[in-house]
Structure formats: structure tokens, C-alpha cells
Amino acid sequence: MTIVTCAKCGAKNRVDERVTVVGKQPVCGKCGASLKGDSGGEASNATGAANTTGATTARGAASARGATDASGAANRASGAAASGAGSKPLTVTDATFAREVVEASKALPVLLDCWAAWCGPCRMIAPALEELAAESGGRYRIAKLNVDENPQTSAALTIQSIPTLFVYKNGQAVERIVGAQTKRVLAARLAAHI
Question: Which helix (H) or strand (E) holds 49?
Fold first, then answer.
């Protein structure tokens, strides 16, 4: 986690280097200004990590979408609970990955959890993924890939640590999230692609 000061309003922003969004830059959670530094918004950060990662916090991403904060995205995601009750995360394998994740993401966003049974953080986020699946209401899909049982897909995705989650949309991975995250953060990241 890196602290970046917004050049426009002076607000301090936490930028998570582990969360990357393809084609998006970090923005200020208060005013929405870019924290990249190339449009007059120079990040006053000794390490400069935010300038190289393109990552943003869930709060900043929610603000960029016009939501007040990440909890607003979580509330929107949970609003569909009645129509999606009983849904479970879909188990995918090397054989079904292309169909159940890549092809399916052309119709609706897919959150793919790459996990293993021995992984403590993977077990920690499992209930949040179960809840998100139950609340999907047909707006998105939650999928799980056991990296130990599916080495082909794991290698193709260059999984180096778990849990690693991907958001797929239009047949491509548009976001990579490494490490255990709260349900609120996962809901916000997913809501950004619905």
C-alpha cells in the first residue's frame, strides 16, 4: 500500500499495488483527479510505485464511477440477492476454462478465483465469494479454479501467489487482484465492470 497525495486537492490516497486495472489509472478518492502525474497531478510519493502500477483503491475506483464509496457498490451488488438466491460459485477446470470463463465473459462479467485447498487466505475469502455468487442476480458469474488440480490454466495465467482473482469481460482479463480482499472490495471491483 502506497500513500499518494493529490496535487489538485491535497488529499492523501492509499494506492494498492496488488490491484491492477487494465487501461485505468489511479484517481483521487476525494476529487477524482488523476494520481498518475502526467496531467499536472504529480504524485508526491517517494517510491513512485503508484505511477508504475496503475492500481487504485476500491474507494477511488468507486468515486471515479460516480459512487460515493465502495460500500455503495457493495450495496448495489447485494440488491439482487432475492433473484440470485441459491447460486454457487462455478468450479472450472483446464477443460472448461475457455467455455465457462472466457466465452461466458462475452455475455456477463466473470470473477475468477484461483485458489488451493491448503491456502489459508483462499479459505478466508471463500465465504465472501459464496455470498457474491448468491447475490449475483444473473448480472455476473463467480468461478473458482483450483490451481493444484489445473496446472495448465494456472501456468497460462502466470499465477505466482494465491489467492489471485481475475475479472473477465468481453473475453479478456480486465483486472487482476492478488491477495485476500474483503467482500466490499471484491463487490466494488466487480461492479466497475457490470
Answer: helix 49-53
